[in-house]
Amino acid sequence: MKIAFLGTGNMGLPMAKNLLETGHELSAWNRTAARAKPLQDAGARLTLASADAVRGAEVIVTMLSNDAATHEALVDSGALDAAARASIVLDMATVSARLATELTRICEKRGLAYVAAPVLGRPEEAAARRLHIIVAGAPEAVSKVGPLLSALGQKVWPAGDVPSRANVMKIQINLMLSVAIQSLAEAAALGEASGVSTGDFVTLASHTLFACPAYQGYGAAMQAAKYEPAGFSARNGYKDVNLALELARDAPAPLALASVVRDALAELIASGGGNKDWGALAEIARRRAAAPRPTR
Amino acid sequence: MKIAFLGTGNMGLPMAKNLLETGHELSAWNRTAARAKPLQDAGARLTLASADAVRGAEVIVTMLSNDAATHEALVDSGALDAAARASIVLDMATVSARLATELTRICEKRGLAYVAAPVLGRPEEAAARRLHIIVAGAPEAVSKVGPLLSALGQKVWPAGDVPSRANVMKIQINLMLSVAIQSLAEAAALGEASGVSTGDFVTLASHTLFACPAYQGYGAAMQAAKYEPAGFSARNGYKDVNLALELARDAPAPLALASVVRDALAELIASGGGNKDWGALAEIARRRAAAPRPTR
Amino acid sequence: MKIAFLGTGNMGLPMAKNLLETGHELSAWNRTAARAKPLQDAGARLTLASADAVRGAEVIVTMLSNDAATHEALVDSGALDAAARASIVLDMATVSARLATELTRICEKRGLAYVAAPVLGRPEEAAARRLHIIVAGAPEAVSKVGPLLSALGQKVWPAGDVPSRANVMKIQINLMLSVAIQSLAEAAALGEASGVSTGDFVTLASHTLFACPAYQGYGAAMQAAKYEPAGFSARNGYKDVNLALELARDAPAPLALASVVRDALAELIASGGGNKDWGALAEIARRRAAAPRPTR
Amino acid sequence: MKIAFLGTGNMGLPMAKNLLETGHELSAWNRTAARAKPLQDAGARLTLASADAVRGAEVIVTMLSNDAATHEALVDSGALDAAARASIVLDMATVSARLATELTRICEKRGLAYVAAPVLGRPEEAAARRLHIIVAGAPEAVSKVGPLLSALGQKVWPAGDVPSRANVMKIQINLMLSVAIQSLAEAAALGEASGVSTGDFVTLASHTLFACPAYQGYGAAMQAAKYEPAGFSARNGYKDVNLALELARDAPAPLALASVVRDALAELIASGGGNKDWGALAEIARRRAAAPRPTR
Question: Which of C229, C244, C276, D224 is the most buried (most CB within 10 A)?
């Protein structure tokens, strides 16, 4: 298939590579062009403008860092005006339900289809085609991008006809993940302040009730007090928690746990930790409790 | 070994049975005597007073519902005065670190040893000898009760010489569990208010990042909206979250997530749900968001 | 002076009247034109488009309900393009600091001045020229609108050269007010649940430490359990608390109390109370505590 | 009247002096005896044991720092056993509703009357007989202590026959005060992080909607960033907020704002600020927001 790929960052790059390797024809664009270089060597055509990348593409994949970047690359840049009629915008980034709804409408007006397909997984999983992909949109469009999704992930989770539903589900999952991290952070700091080392606590938790990747991975990071380089930065986590809070604001619905995490992330970023992994929430909890550093 | 077993409720009964079956000699006491009946048929000697049960016992196991009941059964009742010198109090209930410290001191004065050994697991796991047991206390005493612990659980987690450390760890784990449940509840209500059914959300969550028993069990309950009979009641959960908050109060340490769960449980209990499973936190989150009942 | 007045709702209408009475020449616009009618009788010229109102005006006063309405009336409508060079936009509504910054920039490009002058007070105070007005902007522009502000309020609080600073201060005040109301609500519900009537509590509070208008007014409303008609609706309060949270999000800064109020207002609105006075937060606190209705 | 006065600290000392000056006969006890010295010079009889102070007294006033100290001085010390039949215990300290209920019962058994009469005001107001006194208990007993209360405060607020109701009301007021301080702290930090100085903000707030002592006093302290010596220490504030949370726990009732204040006070105390005035909550809010120190 002829594919345009917009956004070749930490996640987009390995995904685009996988599409190339599967045999698709790829034109790629990234705001910082240099980061797309490896794709050229692998056979992709690079463009300096997103509008140039999409010309003639059957599917336009977007994997950009937030709502603003996505809107800019698709709409303000004129890319959607340059897109071929009947082509499909496949938005795989974590963007707001509100943007998904807006883009669905904009695409419809231009005779395009918008499919939301946000993913669960980090760069390693993207590279290994192990992503979980939540997909929602018009059935024919979803069916057409099926082979692409299969080339990118281990499992596709259909979420119905309304694209924004996929975004809601992705936001729910990330909300839960952020709370799980903050919960590890607070419980560990309470332990440290009460004579239990983070090491002992994490070992127990991650071998009993919380024997799942989320707790094991962040638990290990807290045990080692190692938050750099970031797997997922505090700044990105902040963006995602705010997506959940904006969804709640518009519902309207209370969302008390999310607000607690938001505040802790704001504190982490304000104190200079925006580029650390969001597991560094443990440092904020420790500072608040004046707890000693973990004894390993 | 000659064992006194105080507290034969949902958890204590199957544990006491297992000790009998393993060949130990058992005298048992329960405030509501009738609930200990099945043990008599299995060969235990029942007593009407806790002090009578402990006479001559080498190990006094306590599995009572809270601090007050434990203090009453051991101290106010005169049981510790009746206990044989050098016998061991093995407290397996979820009590406060503060009580563990107080009982350690009281036991020492009387020439007894106090070992804290709180457990992770529900009645089914107790019956199946699948409990995880966190144990802390004087090494000789811990070593002496080793065979008992092996008869009761799948794994023993040593937590050092200071008994209260085991309580802190148990409280940390239950704190995390309570937050996990509330996080499912809030995320599900947000979804319902935004067009995503609890069923779809739970299915996704429990097969991806949250593929561990905690989330799977409570997720399924929320999907079915079934909270009775309670596996673990809101009232018991309230007790445990308050144990965490008391630990934090005394540290002192902030504990923001726990306060959110506390408030939701207070609301659940105030509205008449104290005997429901604490998974019914989902109902509170739904009511707050005026979200529709789950569509399954 | 020749003044254009955009937005003649609950607040704008009495303010516009006062300007007319002071002798200013007024053209007025309101989205729902009928609501501006009383101004026509008082001598104002009404227009159907905001762009028509601003033509030839020296000062363009805006008093619209939120960011979107303000942006629409000034920018999207073409009003700023129709405005006379060197005229002043005097924004007296409670809008975001972000919008103030954006409008400052947009005005500058067109050779206009933007002055932010949000007000403290309700419709009664607006009618009685008793508003407090926080004003910030370029000194010459602020000085030029001085006579207008004097005609509208009892006191002007200068807040410097940067317009958005006035918005920040207004948002701070409203944040504190929202917390004060929620604090009355929670304390009253706690009392009701513990045997103290809201009446007794409010009487004590409003005659001792909290003898100021905020607590006295909302205390009396809670005592009477009367929240309709709204002096300031839950929906408007929700808007303002969200302005504070957006400011915090962008700072970034934690803002824990605001999140608590946000959640309570979301619950009030979700349960159908969006048009009630935000003092009805007391009903939410009472429902959460399953507290009895106040015994007067 | 013959009065025993237990607890002559910051508050108790000026109150006891006022009773002496009014012509009452006073025996006084304080844990740290030296602090009662000034009373001896004024004509009081000092005792080394609380039980000695109460012998022969018609009214036993207690003004101790918390529940434990009160229980110790009255019950564990044997003072209530030494008290003359029909004498009245007049508890003016801020203690829990739970303790008031327990002491009411204990006093009844001994033929004594327990009257709860907690006060609003700081040491200066105690010295100036400007306290507000909330009083509850059996009508005859309340009537008998009337002259004493008139000698101590500016106004007496009757709260009914059940002593603990007075404690509930006192706890409600202190809860609101703690929230008001935290609200000033968070709003000021948000301002600092957004370009508005604490000075400008406090000046506006305390001259408009929040023109009452609570906000003016703490606002001025935050403006000056001066929290030592403490008027009311963080540690004492922590005690009071926890009284509110314990009341809520037992109700049960949610109490979200109180939890936010609790966490901030815990952080303040954990970082070494327990003896600072609780207005130092502003420092915690500033640290969390990494906001600059106030520019005055």
Answer: C244
Chain C interface test: which of D96, D172, D178, D200 (most C C-beta within 10 Å): D172
What is the tens place of the pLDDT at every residue in C213-270? 889 999 999 999 999 999 999 999 999 999 999 999 999 999 999 999 999 999 999 9
Measured torsion, CA atoms of residues C269, C275, C281, C287, in degrees rounded to the nearest 10: -60
**Residue contact D214–C210, C-beta within 8 A:** yes
Chains that touch A (3 or more CB pairs under 8 A): B, C, D
**Is the model's pTM score more than 0.90?**
yes
Write the residue in A169, A184, A212 that is nearest to B201 by C-beta: A169
Average of per-residue pLDDT across A189-199: 97
In this prediction, residue C296 has a pLDDT band, given cuts at 50, 70 and 90, of: very low
CA distance A15 to A29: 13
CA distance D195 to C261: 24
CA distances (Å), origin B161, targets B115, B141, B266:
9, 10, 35
Sign of CA dihedral C47, C53, C56, C57: positive
DSSP code per residue over B18-44: HHHHTT-EEEEE-SSGGGGHHHHHTTP
Q: What is the pLDDT of residues C71-99, one digit of tens each?
A: 999 999 999 999 999 999 999 999 999 99
Give the residue numbers of D marked as catalytic.
Answer: 170
Query: Which residues have CB under 8 Å from A237's CB, separation 6+?
Result: A178, A181, A265, A278
CA A224 – CA D45 distance, rounded (Å): 62
DSSP designation for C277: B
Kindly give the parts of chain B with pLDDT less than 70: 293-296
Residue A227, strand partner residues = none
Beta partners for residue A25, in sequence order: A2
Note whether A253 contacts C269, CB cutoff 8 Å.
no
Secondary structure element (H or E) that encloses residue C149, with its range: helix C139-152
- pLDDT score recorded for residue C20: 97
DSSP code, position D208: T
* pLDDT of amino acid A214: 84
Q: What is the mean pLDDT of residues D138-149?
A: 98
Chain B residues with beta carbon closer than 8 angstroms to that of C271: 290
Check residue A170 and give its pLDDT.
98
CA-CA-CA-CA dihedral for B160, B163, B164, B167, to nearest 10? 80
> Do C99 and C123 meet the contact criterion of CB atoms below 8 Å apart?
no
> Which residues make Cβ contacts (< 8 Å) with residue A71, sequence separation at least 6?
A99, A103
Q: Which chains touch D (3 or more CB pairs under 8 A)?
A: A, B, C
Of B249, B254, B265, the CB nearest to D242: B249
| C288:D254 CB<8 A | yes
Q: Which ipTM did the prediction report?
A: 0.95
Taking residues D163-176, report their average pLDDT. Answer: 98
Q: Are residues B269 and D263, on separate chains, in Cβ contact within 8 Å?
A: no
Chain D positions with Cβ closer than 8 Å to B: 238, 242, 245, 248-249, 251-256, 259-260, 262-267, 269-270
Q: B252 vs D266: CB contact, 8 Å cut-off?
A: yes
Q: Which pLDDT score is estimated for C180?
A: 98
Structure tokens at D59: 């009214």
Q: Please, are residues B156 and B146 in contact by the beta-carbon 8 Å criterion? A: yes
CA closest to B264 among chain A residues? A256
Q: Could you count the other beta carbons within 10 Å of the beta carbon of residue A140?
A: 9
Would the pLDDT of C294 be above 50?
Answer: no
Q: What is the pLDDT of residue D48?
A: 96
Q: Distance (Å, rounded) from C-alpha B131 to C-alpha B156?
A: 9
Most D CBs within 10 A among C194, C246, C249, hence the mutation to make, goes to: C194
CB distance D260 to C254 below 8 Å? no
A-chain residue closest to D265, CA distance:
A288
Question: Which strands, in side-by-side order, build the sheet including B119-120?
Answer: B119-120, B131-135, B153-158
